[in-house]
Design brief:
single chain; about 110 residues; mainly alpha; 2 domains; about 0% strand; extended
Length: about 110
């Protein structure tokens, strides 16, 4: 057992290697490469539009507002191709910022 590393050490090593891979040129060439789809794996809608690597504040807000209006998380996630946990994070930040802005506005009105 003396030669075994803890799971935390293994995870740290994996993360370190991923960071190094992202910085290397081989990662950037892999990222842009298109694989040939296997039969039956094509999406029914045909070509899926390329999604941005970074989402603008306006596009994030639009997705969050859809959630706040009551659309299902899995539907918004599927349509926007953003993981559900990411949408939940955007929603949490959106609500925190709105609360903070409301508190500041209330303090200014009281003064």
């Amino acid at each position: 057992m003396a030669g075994r590393r803890s799971p935390v050490t293994d995870i740290r090593e994996i993360l370190r290697r991923l960071q190094l891979a992202r910085r290397s040129r081989c990662w950037s060439t892999m990222k842009g490469s298109k694989r040939k789809p296997t039969p039956g794996s094509e999406s029914p809608a045909g070509d899926v539009p390329d999604l941005p690597e970074r989402w603008s504040a306006a596009r994030k807000t639009e997705s969050v507002l859809r959630l706040l209006r009551g659309e299902a998380l899995d539907a918004v996630s599927r349509e926007s191709q953003v993981p559900a946990h990411e949408l939940e994070s955007w929603k949490r930040v959106f609500l925190e910022q709105g609360t903070r802005a409301g508190d500041e506005a209330g303090a200014q009105d009281a003064a």
